[in-house]
Amino acid sequence: SPDESMLALANFKQQSNFNINNSDVTVIHLLPNGDLNTSLGVNGLTRITIDNTKQYTGIEFSPDNLKLFVGAKNVGIHWIDIPNNFTPMGIISSLTAPYGNSQLETAFDVNGNYLIYAASSSTDLSAIDPFPAIPTFTSNAITSINPFVVDPAASPYVQQQLQNFLLLPDQIDGEVYQDFAPDLPTEPNSCCLFNSDFTVIQPFTAAVIRQREQELKKSQRMERQKIASKHNPF
After folding, report:
1. What is the 3-state secondary structure (H, E, C) of the chain?
2. Is 137 exposed, middle or buried (0-12, 13-18, 19+ CB in 10 A)?
3. pTM as predicted
4. Distance between CA 54 and CA 13 in Å, rounded?
5. What is residue 96's predicted lDDT score, i.e. its pLDDT?
6. pLDDT of residue 75
7. Are 67 and 80 contacting, i.e. CB atoms less than 8 angstroms apart?
8. Are 65 and 130 in contact (CB under 8 A)?
9. Taking phi first (over 0 means left), then psi (-120 to 50 degrees means alpha), and beta for anything else, what does residue 74 get?
């Protein structure tokens, strides 16, 4: 969770394990030093049952630590009310059904607002606004002719166990990527735009990452030359 007090795990049960009395979601409560907080839950664990006949996939906390979102394969995206004793509140919307087999990932939109994204295909992202009392959902929030998702070959486990599961590029929750390079010009640079939202216009590939790194180095070099020329006009 953003406040580092909880760790949540979704249970992608194999079909042979359906109807067994095990939790769909497990929340691990943490102390500030990272140790198990045994004063919460049952010995530090809160086990949540939504529907034990389903397979649970992506999982993500809201930025305010008040909600937990979890995808269910071929079903949709559930949300859990954390302050209300971790009560499952059902599917956000029937429109989430195509997005249930996706990683969930918090990221800024182009206006700097936090949203939680999920994919239904390699070129379609939905967006969850996690802040209203009842979260809102927008399907087809971002579409592109180029893929948003990470090649599953990057994760052998996903290839073997979670067939057709859609991986999104990892974001660092709560970070403004522009702040990582304060010496660059004030206008958003291509590297930070690429990393801080999903409005990319090229596939998320190693080649594109290398290109962004080269652009960042070039921008840094130009900025240093600009600063040096101010101090040494001759």
Report:
1. CCCCCEEEEECCCCHHHCCCCCCCEEEEEECCCCCECCCCCECCEEEECCCCCCCEEEEEECCCCCEEEEEECCCEEEEEECCCCCEEEEECCHHHHHHCCECCEEEECCCCCEEEEEEEECCEEEEEECCCCCCEEEEEEEECCCCCCECHHHCHHHHHHCCCCEECCCCCCCCCHHHHCCCCCCCCCHHHHHHHCCCCCCCCCHHHHHHHHHHHHHHHHHHHHHHHHHHCCC
2. buried
3. 0.71
4. 8
5. 94
6. 93
7. yes
8. no
9. left
- Amino acid present at 19: N
Q: Which amino acid is present at 130?
A: P
Q: Which amino acid is at 213?
A: E
Sign of CA dihedral 6, 103, 135, 63: positive
- From CA 78, how far away is CA 49, in angstroms rounded? 12
Could you tell me the two tokens for 211?
A: 């290109």
In sequence order, what are the beta bridge partners of 42? 45
| pLDDT tens for each residue of 11-23 | 887 654 555 557 8
